[in-house]
Design a protein that fits this description.
By secondary structure, the protein is an alpha+beta fold. The protein is built from six helices and eight strands. Helix content is 25%, strand content 28%. The protein starts with 9 loop residues before the first strand and ends in a 14-residue tail after the last helix. The relative contact order is 0.15.
């Protein structure tokens, strides 16, 4: 890597901060993970057991940014009140590639927040850390997520048929998709796909 990630991380956009979780964020985490569409994507967060959240936050704060093979969760907070409305995650493979993910509280969707925050983190890993490739994946039924990948300028690399293991025995196998963007394409995609903050960006539910 060309750069070394700092002990703390604070990225600012026009409306948001991307930062480490703080002990004061417990109530916000419980609030934005309350809906099942979020909680099933953030199963590593003990949001249903608020008394265990301080330990989760402390563990995340101790992680080196961005240590190989470790999932680092970062808070998406509104600048106006520092309220945490969602998270970004990044898993580095230790060889200049990383998998990015996101989750946003239901009431904060449709305002471009996830796109704005994810783009800031991708700017950072490409421009400061010298990453070669960033990728993301989701189940094909999660239209909202893969449409966000397309807004970020990611290109669809794969569609895997019935690759997602059912949550319950006898459950439905679901297709998954994989998107990615290379550092060499990022400057073009960044300028081409940067929306006006606050503009509607969320597709209707599939």
């Amino acid at each position: 890597m060309r750069g070394v990630a700092p002990v703390t991380l604070l990225l600012e956009t026009e409306r948001l901060r991307v930062r480490r979780f703080e002990p004061r964020d417990v109530e916000d985490i419980v609030a934005f993970t309350r809906d099942a569409s979020v909680s099933r994507e953030t199963c590593n967060i003990p949001s249903a057991r608020p008394d265990e959240l301080p330990a989760y936050i402390e563990e995340q704060r101790r992680l080196t940014l961005f240590a190989a093979k470790r999932c680092v969760d970062l808070a998406i907070a509104r600048k106006e009140d520092d309220r945490v409305i969602g998270l970004l995650s990044l898993v580095s493979n230790g060889a200049l590639q990383g998998e990015i993910g996101w989750a946003l509280g239901v009431e904060h969707r449709g305002r471009g927040y996830a796109t704005e925050a994810a783009r800031a983190l991708m700017d950072y890993v490409f421009d400061t850390l010298g990453y070669h490739r960033v990728f993301a994946g989701t189940v094909y039924t999660n239209v909202r997520s893969w449409k966000l990948m397309e807004r970020l300028g990611m290109r669809k690399e794969a569609h895997f048929r019935k690759a997602h293991v059912p949550a319950n025995p006898g459950g439905e196998w679901i297709d998954t998709v994989r998107y990615a963007v290379l550092a060499e394409d990022w400057p073009t995609e960044r300028s081409r796909n940067r929306p006006r903050p606050g503009s509607p960006t969320t597709p209707p539910a599939a």
